[in-house]
Amino acid sequence: MSHFVVGLTGGIGSGKSAAADCFASHGITIVDTDAIAHELTAANGAAMPALLEEFGAGAATADGSLDRSRMRRLVFADPAARARLEAILHPMIRELSNERCREAGSPYVILAVPLLVESGAYRERCHRIVAVDCPEDLQISRVMARNGIGEGEVRAILATQASRAERLAAADDVLANDGDLPHLDGQVAELHRKYLRLLSQIANATS
To answer: Which CATH number is 4-206's, of 3.30.1490.20, 3.40.50.300, 3.40.50.150, 3.40.50.10420?
Structure first.
């Protein structure tokens, strides 16, 4: 990949999307693996034939898209089912995200990956890693409000993700997101300037 790739990550409810939107406002291309997964599992999505073959017709909703809540329950209850799902989806997501990073027209590209710290393949592709960070109780309340699920279910999801400490240890840069959008926007603007300076230094060193 010729592009300078900045990996953007954070636990569920940390505010990755808000941070990505701030980078996009500076004209930076966002390649979001969650959005790609949704695209692949929408009605007529490229992954649907393989998923229906693997999990049966019951894996789809009436409109032909993946029944996400049913699959979420299945993979939480059955690690083997999770492995089968990931074996189909992950290679397709990686391929599409690679392609979109290569095609990006901005000076650098933001690759938003929720499980970036947990996934060696994505970490290797990033020149820098940015973690969006917020206190765990704030994450939990945000996800409960957004997804309409109980605290126990949110904690179960958090338990499958890297801890806050692991994510911060892996990050080159950290964005604190306590819900104050102008503050987040200011931090992103500062990082944006920093990355442009870094790219300029790289260009000078190689010219």
So the answer is: 3.40.50.300
